[in-house]
Amino acid sequence: MKYNFDEIIDRKNTDALNYDGWRQYIFKADKDAKFAFADDEFIRMWVADMDFSTPPEILDAIKARLDRKILGYTKIYDDEYYHIFKDWCQRHYNWNIDTREIVLSPGIIPALNRLVPLLIKQDESILIQTPSYTPFKQAGDYNSRQVIYSDLLEEQGEYALDFADMERKIKDSSLNIKLFILCNPQNPTGKVWTQEDLIKMGKLCIENDIWIISDEIHCDLLRNGVNHTPIAKLFPEYDKIITCMAPSKTFNLAGNLMSHIFIKNEEVKNEWLRLYDDFISPLSLVATKAAYSECDEWLKQLKNYLDDNFKLVEEFVHTHFPKANFKVPDSTYLAWINLKEYLPENIDNQQLSLYFANKTGILLEGGNMFVSNGDNYIRINLACPRAIIKQGLERIKNAL
């Protein structure tokens, strides 16, 4: 089947965060707040869900489940589900998972908020790498745990670990770091950490008895030719690694509210199950089964389309903003672009999103929304039809 990623789908009045909730989320404003552009004039390239249709195989599975006519209390009682997901991990990552480690969560953000108090005490700290997905910091704030930053090193758009900084902070007893939240592939930079990087970070944590939560939600969205290695695969005996995966980014199922959390440590897993023994949506269950068993070809075509979208942006940036810092990321569908040389001199880095909203009619996320180490950057979502991307790029060019 040939899938149509050029289709423009109307998301208005669907209660979508992307379309209807941006005022509250990006600007913490009232839903009726006025901006320089009307709602229908905005191009939405911000939150990390796609403007592509969810795969038809998944929609068909949901329709078939609806035909069963009853949507009652649901959990996973059929081992087929776990066999399907195990096969997926084997096919894509050559990773032989133990399905007994899996607990389910309505998302990775809720999982982070739940895990932090299960893993570390109130006087213990969390290490994150910045720029960072903001919920990593919020998981610490929410649970009254101190969050320590280790800035990634960057040169010409290429990011690298500052391993010396990580090691210094982890070994500093006054910081009392007991949890490292890893993001691989990294959000917002799209960096896929090499096995060498992962081994260095893993050994550092093991030597210092540090928990690792590895958010790998973007791992399916690799550029062609790039490979992903789950850190837990490299350290199968260490029971203080928790891996988080989900179909939400990969198959545009963010509203599906179903994530896989691998907890090897029996004590922590049992406590999770005692506190959070959730029911799930029957529609989410069949959607996820269809995603992992029937959508390999859809994902292949999606990745090709995204690769071409990134090539388009790369050529556009090099032509019109040659001093901008941009490198096609290893993974994700998010472009992370440094526009320092082109932004107005008096621009407030805390207001980049507002500047672009009122100046260009584009909704995007400024680097300030990623905790630290993101000044002068914007993050734009390229998981949308190419015609929309071209229109958005022209608006940015005309504004700057």
From TrEMBL:
Keywords attached to this entry: Aminotransferase, Lyase, Pyridoxal phosphate, Transferase
Signal peptide bounds: none
Domain Aminotransferase class I/classII large: 47-396
Broad EC category: lyase
The protein's Enzyme Commission number: 4.4.1.13
Required cofactor(s): pyridoxal 5'-phosphate
GO function terms (MF aspect): cysteine-S-conjugate beta-lyase activity; pyridoxal phosphate binding; transaminase activity
CDD domains (alphabetical): AAT_like
InterPro entries membership: Aminotransferase_I/II_large (IPR004839), C-S_lyase_PatB-like (IPR027619), Class-II_PLP-Dep_Aminotrans (IPR051798), PyrdxlP-dep_Trfase (IPR015424), PyrdxlP-dep_Trfase_major (IPR015421), PyrdxlP-dep_Trfase_small (IPR015422)
Entry superkingdom: Bacteria
Family: Belongs to the class-II pyridoxal-phosphate-dependent aminotransferase family. MalY/PatB cystathionine beta-lyase subfamily.
Protein name: cysteine-S-conjugate beta-lyase
Organism, as annotated: Proteus hauseri ATCC 700826
